[in-house]
Amino acid sequence: MTKPPSPVTSTSKAAARIRAAAVDAFATNGYGGTTTREIAARLDMSPAAMYPHYRSKEDLLFAISYDGHATTREVISAADLPGEPPTARLRSMIAAFARWQADHHAQARVVQYELTALTPEHYRDVVAIRREITQHFRQVVEAGAAAGEFTVPDAEGVTLALMSLCVDVCRWFPAGAYTDADAVASLYADLAMRLVGAD
Question: GO MF terms on file (predicted)?
Answer without folding.
Answer: DNA-binding transcription factor activity; transcription cis-regulatory region binding
